[in-house]
């Protein structure tokens, strides 16, 4: 049997090329591809507008068996012991609305769903692998940038925006351009005390947050091969912080061992067939990589961040850098701003910096191995007196249950840590878990952007062991100096899954021979708790509804240009988390660049700063001219282009863009244009600074001033994107015209990749407590499965 029906080249291929090729449904003459999506995970923040669009266009979820939903970002992490209903449990009205909207949507469309009363609920990127929903060689998408996590299985996994969520729901495909291939080789062995989190922070420190832009990174080499699946997931998780579209690691025995026996992993003959295929998934000898980078394992030390970008990473033995020693003026200004925000003095030894809080959680580091590593540090110690709060938030209900079986909860609690329920929590603080202004946190999460964990809060990223140690000592420490009690040193650069976990996951609890439809559990909750969803969501009038379809054509724009002299503007800065709780695409104007545009006055009211968009004439700007690289990096939130559009911005010019933001912009008729930095500085910025207009001619792909002088003779744009913008075309409508190709692909898929059939529809929902549960019921139910 041949496993692939499409091949771009006859020569050697990379892992990425192989997985990409295997999913090509159709290649258009303009070079864009339609890719089939095997696994689609959904959460409450980025799906409401997608379901709304789907319903307004009278479309259905094409493959509910390829779809899995859960709630994670908004939910409180306090004990659910007394959980009665979402109405009483979620106190924040906007969070509650998002959760209930998801529940309504999964019910309407019969999508398998792990709600708050389901012990399998957890962070999207924890539950996919845990259930065996994520499998080697699959395409995995989610309206979430850290979907890259799933690449640890050799799957092609990437974050998408809400319009694309709608596209996948309707068509089970996505329109993609081919990315470049980057390989990061890590030869040698990691030093004792060094985890995959240190390694990925080190890599980002080296290549920068724009280093992987336009690429899919394959992590390879001895140090990578020796990592456990959990450690690999932490690596791939943060490949988005390196600017990459996705991160991948070739599947091997470690992968197969982790996957075997998971509820949705293939069984019997299908397992044998799957393994045969998965073993072909590696980069061929001689395959071409556009970039090949080597990072020696022995050079990596326990690493933490000092600033407000994940690339601000240094070995723990280092000191806060000194801007006075930086020659590049843009970088120098960035460093000064970061140090001011972080409340740090140049040249301070990192180990002497005191902390206020600890957060052990997030999709990067809240799996069982992470909690084992952190608890081994904590065991027999107490939190330092200056530490106000330390939280441990497991990645899923199952991680929590496993940790409790191993007694880790007790170890943490005895040391003074809080033991919480699963969710995203303080990673971005869409729920009540936030830092207060100026609090400094040792965090195992992945983003240290300004305001990420709370307004004016200070985040330092590090491994679970290092965060736990910071809690014990009250300041950052080199984990290699820590004295473990009882010689209880965990295998931090673990080589394979611990037996106990694999066994529990292979146990009876997860058998699923008889497919059972998701029925009552989903239904009952949804029926009871839809009361406060406004009518507009349940019945939007077609004519009023903003959907992905029918965009206004973008042809020529003659618009006032505003200058923005910044690099690495992340989407958290473009639209902070508190504005993500909407279930609409509009009304985000005031949230745009909120932290930059407003400060609080004495009465606690918003007062405008002198940020460029608050100043005349730029209040009316339609073009944003950015001098620095990597505009729109970070989160996949489509709220970023929505907010820019709401403000009136129609085009953004920058040297480079975050991949997901770039993509999301097109879906909303917002034109991002990549122009070399020297040209921006020389020709465009002077006009923007004067408050002049720029004329962007999309059909002719050039930019002039209002007198007609051509400033940029040619800018690049992929033909398909141009075609859609100029004609205001609806992607989904276009894709649905390719129905024959999609059904043909599905027929082939059923045969060639038969081990993917069934998907989430094989999950059991019969044994889940429906209304109420407590930790004890949980583990009993879990044992019984
Ligand atoms: C809310 C979601 C869109 C976002 C993401 O894409 O990453 C979030 O998970 C984050 O970490 O900022
Ligand atoms: S990065 Fe944080 S907020 Fe985003 S999915 Fe992961 S845990 Fe959730």
UniProtKB/TrEMBL annotation:
Name of the gene encoding the protein in the UniProt record: NDAI0D03580
**InterPro entries, per database record:** 3-IsopropMal_deHydase_lsu, 3-IsopropMal_deHydase_ssu, 3-IsopropMal_deHydtase_ssu/lsu, Acnase/IPM_dHydase_lsu_aba_1/3, Acoase/IPM_deHydtase_lsu_aba, Aconitase/3IPM_dehydase_swvl, Aconitase_4Fe-4S_BS, Aconitase_4Fe-4S_dom
**Which cofactors is this protein said to need?**
[4Fe-4S] cluster
- The answer to keyword 4Fe-4S applying to this record is yes
The UniProt entry's sequence similarity note says: Belongs to the aconitase/IPM isomerase family.
Q: Where is the Aconitase/3-isopropylmalate dehydratase large subunit alpha/beta/alpha domain?
A: 17-474
Give one GO molecular function term.
metal ion binding
Q: What is this protein called?
A: 3-isopropylmalate dehydratase
Show the catalytic activity.
(2R,3S)-3-isopropylmalate = (2S)-2-isopropylmalate
What segment(s) does the record annotate as region Disordered? 493-526
What's the stated role of this polypeptide?
A: Catalyzes the isomerization between 2-isopropylmalate and 3-isopropylmalate, via the formation of 2-isopropylmaleate.
């Amino acid at each position: 049997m041949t496993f692939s029906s499409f091949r771009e080249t006859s020569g050697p291929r990379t892992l990425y090329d192989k997985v990409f090729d295997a999913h090509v449904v159709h290649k258009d003459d303009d070079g864009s591809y339609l890719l089939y999506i095997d696994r689609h995970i959904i959460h409450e923040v980025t799906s409401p507008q997608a379901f709304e669009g789907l319903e307004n266009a009278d479309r259905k979820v094409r493959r509910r068996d390829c779809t899995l939903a859960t709630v994670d970002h908004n939910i409180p992490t306090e004990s659910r012991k007394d959980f009665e209903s979402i109405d009483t449990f979620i106190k924040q009205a906007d969070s509650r609305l998002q959760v209930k909207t998801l529940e309504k949507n999964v019910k309407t469309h019969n999508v398998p769903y792990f709600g708050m009363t389901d012990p399998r609920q957890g962070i999207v990127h924890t539950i996919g692998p845990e259930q065996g929903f994520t499998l080697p060689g699959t395409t995995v998408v989610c309206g979430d940038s850290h979907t890259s996590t799933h690449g640890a299985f050799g799957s092609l996994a990437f974050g998408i925006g809400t319009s694309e969520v709608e596209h996948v729901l309707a068509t089970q495909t996505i329109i993609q351009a081919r990315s470049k291939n980057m390989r990061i080789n890590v030869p040698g062995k990691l030093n004792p005390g060094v985890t995959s989190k240190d390694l990925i922070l080190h890599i980002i420190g080296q290549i920068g947050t724009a280093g992987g832009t336009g690429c899919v990174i394959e992590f390879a080499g001895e140090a990578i091969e020796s990592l456990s699946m959990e450690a690999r997931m932490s690596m791939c998780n943060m490949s988005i912080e390196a600017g990459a579209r996705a991160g991948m690691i070739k599947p091997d025995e470690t992968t197969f061992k982790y996957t075997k026996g998971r509820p949705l992993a293939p069984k019997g003959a299908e397992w044998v067939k799957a393994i045969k295929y998965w073993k072909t998934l590696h980069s061929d000898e001689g395959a071409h990589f556009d970039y090949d980078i080597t990072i020696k394992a022995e050079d990596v030390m326990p690493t933490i961040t000092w600033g407000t970008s994940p690339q601000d990473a240094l070995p723990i033995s280092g000191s806060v850098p000194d801007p006075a020693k930086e020659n590049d003026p843009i970088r120098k200004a960035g460093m000064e701003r970061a140090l001011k925000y972080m409340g740090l003095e140049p040249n301070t030894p990192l180990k002497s910096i005191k902390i206020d809080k600890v957060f052990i959680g997030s999709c990067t580091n809240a799996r069982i191995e992470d909690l084992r590593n952190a608890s081994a540090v904590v065991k027999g110690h107490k939190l330092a007196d200056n530490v106000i709060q330390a939280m441990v938030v497991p990645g899923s209900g199952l991680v929590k249950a496993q940790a409790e079986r191993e007694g880790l909860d007790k170890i943490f609690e005895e040391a003074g840590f809080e033991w919480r329920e699963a969710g995203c929590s303080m990673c971005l603080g869409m729920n009540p878990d936030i830092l207060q202004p100026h609090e400094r946190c040792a965090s195992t999460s992945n983003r240290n952007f300004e305001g990420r964990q709370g307004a004016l809060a200070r985040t330092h990223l590090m491994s679970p062991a290092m965060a736990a140690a910071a809690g014990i000592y009250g300041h950052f420490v080199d984990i290699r100096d820590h004295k473990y009690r009882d010689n209880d040193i965990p295998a931090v650069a673990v080589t394979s899954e611990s037996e106990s976990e694999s066994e529990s996951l292979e146990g009876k609890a997860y058998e699923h021979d008889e497919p059972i439809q998701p029925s009552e559990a989903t239904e009952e909750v949804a029926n009871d708790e839809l009361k406060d969803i406004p009518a507009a969501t349940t019945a939007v009038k077609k004519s009023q509804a903003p959907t992905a379809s029918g965009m206004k054509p973008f042809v020529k724009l003659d618009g006032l240009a505003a200058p923005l002299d910044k690099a690495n503007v992340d989407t958290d800065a473009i639209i902070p988390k508190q504005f993500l709780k909407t279930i609409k695409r509009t009304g985000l104007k005031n949230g745009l660049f909120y932290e930059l545009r407003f400060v609080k006055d004495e009465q606690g009211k918003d007062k405008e700063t002198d940020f460029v968009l608050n100043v005349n004439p730029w209040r009316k700007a339609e073009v944003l001219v950015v001098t620095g690289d990597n505009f729109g990096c970070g989160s996949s939130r489509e709220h970023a282009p929505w907010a820019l559009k709401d403000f009136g911005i129609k085009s953004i010019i920058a040297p480079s863009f975050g991949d997901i933001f770039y993509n999301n912009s097109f879906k909303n008729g917002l034109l991002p244009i990549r122009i070399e930095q020297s040209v921006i500085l020389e020709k465009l910025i002077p006009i923007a600074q004067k408050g002049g207009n720029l004329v962007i001619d999309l059909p002719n792909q050039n930019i002039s001033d209002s007198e007609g002088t051509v400033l940029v003779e040619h800018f690049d744009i992929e033909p398909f994107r141009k075609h859609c913008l100029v004609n205001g075309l609806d992607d989904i409508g276009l894709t649905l015209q390719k129905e024959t190709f999609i059904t043909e692909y599905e027929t082939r898929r059923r045969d060639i990749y038969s081990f993917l059939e069934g998907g989430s529809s094989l999950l059991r929902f019969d044994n889940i407590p429906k209304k109420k549960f407590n930790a004890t019921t949980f583990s009993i139910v879990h044992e019984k499965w």
